[in-house]
């Protein structure tokens, strides 16, 4: 059953007196307890989409149209007070940089307690402390008694990201949005955090939206992958299908440009020429066409996202390979 | 003399704290390596492993506590400022962050020309011609010269940084994570560019990276660092196909690489974080996270030993690829 439904979302930023569209008609659904990865490069609109869901867009951004609903109730129409109950409660977030996401002036326990107070008030002091301990154990922090008394700067990068996840879990969310949660971490620690998110999702039946630029991280995690380019979804497919046979030329190029650790080494990496377009100066027609090896005259018109089997693709040439 | 860079037993210590709490952290602890002309040596490791400190010492941007650095057969440590300046013509640095490493108030022409101005290469017209040539070399259009850095994307800025580093025709480039700040689709372009430039100009690269898949693509040889020491070194293909140090094995298994193709890799997820160089573990520094650790590993530090020709490992119990981990 669909828990989160985003339809036709359009988000614009005010820049130098102009309105610049950064999310241009994004629609996707998230089923209860499932894991979706949203993949794209900088400027693709992936983080802005996530911020729109939690209504945490910066003041320069505005939602022009579209709807976002959680279990059938419209989030965009809610008064801010009710949104505060949902944010951090039913829908929680984990950000890239745990050092800035956590408050340097409060201990880890105080920060978890703040979420508990807001979303899951407990009667006794002891019960709340026990809850904190349990959350720390759930995210795999050893010696939780001591770590609860620590300030963020006293923890290592990986530990801070775990503590941040613990604060996100405190509201017992149904949906967790993780925006590049592993990007600031060392590779061996990245793998730990991805494993942790997958385990928590399984144990708690919690749906997760993982936002990342790193397709390598996605493979071991997501049921489905949404690929974004220049503010639109270009492909939305079950993870194994996407990695096996990407349908959109951009998804394919993105996969090809990842150097591999096994298999034959190529003299030159296949690369995509050019760079992602400036949202203020998008090419007419398909945004990817100027960088696409398969572009033809047809691509002067913008392709719509069509359903082919279990996936959705926005390309005039999809299915004609 | 075939070595563009040679480092012998490099140690770099930094004082931390003050008064009674004053102590010393050893960021690089006895590193030796060499980079031949036209060769790429990748220095791989996580944050705090000492790879950037090693690189800074290599270009005399930091003064080593002990040890020797040779560039093109000349001893670098103890050089006078004048000698150092002439050294800069031989060895240049490419930085990780193309947003922070280009002066926003200078035009691209001024940025790429600056090394030529400092070293008084040719006349003004000659320098401008050289700038145009360099921009062409890194794949930027001629009109780029008059623009300023903020008008360029991350990948293009990195090309500007590469053009600047090439201005004096150095033989050695230290590339400090040159693609890790770039979008995936742009990373491949810059890696290809660096490889082409190496072929055309016989450049030597000391290439610092944490991404083993990138390293396998670009490097001839790889040295893996952990807490200030080299734990494994060898040919890039060999290290990627048959890593022998448990840390390298774990690093390989954690590396984000193209999924869905080739053999399924065994995943080893290390527990714990990299330990702090302020208080390094006894014996083998990796024993706190190693699944093969035994008592010896806690007390005796394993030396770097050549197990196969050209393949050295610092481990009491190196992984045997034929029987372990498929």
Report on this model:
Chain A: Keywords: ATP-binding, Cell membrane, Membrane, Nucleotide-binding, Transport. Chain A: One of its GO terms (cellular component) is plasma membrane. Chain A: Residues 4-255 form the ABC transporter domain. The complex is a heterodimer of chains A (321) and B (326). Helix content of chain A is 31%, strand content 25%. Chain A is α/β, with parallel strands linked by helices. Chain A has two domains: 1-90 and 174-257 and 284-321, P-loop containing nucleotide triphosphate hydrolases (Rossmann fold); 106-172. In chain A, strands 6-7-8-3-9-10-12-11 form an eight-stranded mixed sheet, with helices on both faces. A four-stranded antiparallel sheet of chain A has the order 2-1-4-5. In chain A, strand 9 and strand 10 (232-238) form a beta hairpin. In chain A, helix 4 (108-119) runs parallel beside helix 7. Chain B is globular. The relative contact order of chain B is 0.13. Chain B has helices at 51-58, 81-87, 108-118, 124-137, 154-166, 184-201, 212-218, 236-241, 246-254, 295-299, and strands at 3-16, 23-36, 40-44, 66-71, 74-75, 91-94, 172-176, 204-209, 221-226, 229-235, 305-308, 311-313. Chain B starts with a strand and ends in a 13-residue tail after the last strand. In chain B, helix 3 (108-118) packs parallel to helix 5 (154-166), helix 4 crosses helix 5 and helix 5 packs parallel to helix 6. Chain B is built from ten helices and twelve strands. Chain B folds into two domains: 3-90 and 170-313, Rossmann fold (3-Layer(aba) Sandwich); 105-168, no CATH class. The longest helix of chain B is centred in the middle third of the chain and has 18 residues, at 184-201. At the A-B interface, helix 7, helix 8, helix 9, helix 10 and helix 11 of A face helix 5, helix 6, helix 7, helix 8 and helix 9 of B.
């Amino acid at each position: 059953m669909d828990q989160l439904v985003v339809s036709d979302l359009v988000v614009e930023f005010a820049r130098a007196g102009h309105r610049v569209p950064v999310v241009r008609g994004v629609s996707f659904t998230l089923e209860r307890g499932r894991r979706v990865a949203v993949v794209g490069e900088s400027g693709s609109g992936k983080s802005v989409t996530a911020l729109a869901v939690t209504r945490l867009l910066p003041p320069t951004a505005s939602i022009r149209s579209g709807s976002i609903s959680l279990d059938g109730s419209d989030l965009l129409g809610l008064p801010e007070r009710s949104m505060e109950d949902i944010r951090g409660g039913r829908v929680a977030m984990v950000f890239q940089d745990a050092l800035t996401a956590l408050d340097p002036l409060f201990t880890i326990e105080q920060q978890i307690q703040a979420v508990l107070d807001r979303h899951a008030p407990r009667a006794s002091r002891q019960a709340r402390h026990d809850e904190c301990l349990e959350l720390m154990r759930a995210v795999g922090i050893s010696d939780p008694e001591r770590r609860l008394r620590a300030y963020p700067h006293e923890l290592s990068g990986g530990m801070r990201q775990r503590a941040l996840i613990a604060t996100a879990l405190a509201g017992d969310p149904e949906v967790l949005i993780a925006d590049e949660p592993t990007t600031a971490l060392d590779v061996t620690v990245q793998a730990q955090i991805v494993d942790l998110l997958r385990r928590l999702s399984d144990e708690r039946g919690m749906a997760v939206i993982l936002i990342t630029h790193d397709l390598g991280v996605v493979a071991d995690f997501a049921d489905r992958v949404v690929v974004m380019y220049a503010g639109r979804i270009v492909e939305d497919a079950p993870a194994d299908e996407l990695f096996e046979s990407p349908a959109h030329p951009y998804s394919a190029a993105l996969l090809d440009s990842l150097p591999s650790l096994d298999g034959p080494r190529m003299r030159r990496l296949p690369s995509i020429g050019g760079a992602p377009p400036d949202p203020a100066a998008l090419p007419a027609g398909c945004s990817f066409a100027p960088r696409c090896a398969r572009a033809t005259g047809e691509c002067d018109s913008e392709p719509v996202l069509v359903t082919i089997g279990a996936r959705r693709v926005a390309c005039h040439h999809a299915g004609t390979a | 003399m075939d070595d563009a860079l040679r480092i012998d037993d490099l140690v770099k210590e930094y004082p931390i704290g003050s008064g009674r709490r004053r102590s010393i952290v050893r960021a690089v602890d006895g590193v030796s390596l060499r980079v031949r002309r036209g060769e790429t040596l990748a220095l791989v490791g996580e944050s705090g492993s000492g790879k950037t400190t090693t690189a800074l010492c290599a270009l005399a941007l930091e003064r080593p506590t002990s040890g020797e650095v040779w560039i093109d057969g000349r001893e670098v440590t103890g050089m006078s400022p004048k000698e150092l300046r002439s050294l800069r013509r031989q060895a240049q640095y490419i930085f990780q962050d193309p947003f922070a490493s280009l002066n926003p108030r200078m035009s691209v022409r001024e940025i790429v020309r600056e090394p030529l101005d400092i070293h008084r290469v040719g006349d003004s017209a000659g320098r401008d011609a050289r700038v145009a040539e360099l921009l062409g070399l890194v794949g930027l259009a001629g009109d780029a010269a008059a623009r300023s850095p903020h008008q360029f994307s991350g990948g293009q800025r990195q090309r500007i940084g590469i053009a600047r580093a090439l201005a004096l025709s150095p033989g050695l480039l230290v590339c400090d994570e040159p693609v890790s700040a770039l979008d995936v689709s742009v990373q491949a372009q810059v890696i290809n560019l660096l490889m082409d430039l190496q072929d055309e100009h016989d450049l030597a690269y000391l290439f610092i990276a944490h991404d083993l898949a990138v390293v396998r693509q670009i490097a001839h040889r790889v040295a893996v660092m952990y807490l200030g020491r080299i734990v494994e070194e060898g040919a890039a293909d060999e290290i990627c196909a048959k890593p022998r140090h448990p840390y390298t094995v774990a690093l390989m298994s954690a590396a984000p690489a193209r999924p869905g193709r080739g053999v399924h890799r065994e995943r080893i997820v290390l527990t714990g974080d990299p330990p702090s160089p302020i208080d390094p573990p006894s014996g083998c520094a990796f024993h706190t996270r190693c699944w093969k650790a035994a008592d010896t590993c806690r007390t005796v530090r394993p030396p770097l030993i050549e197990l196969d020709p050209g393949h050295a490992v610092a481990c009491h119990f190196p992984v045997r690829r034929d029987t372990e981990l498929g």
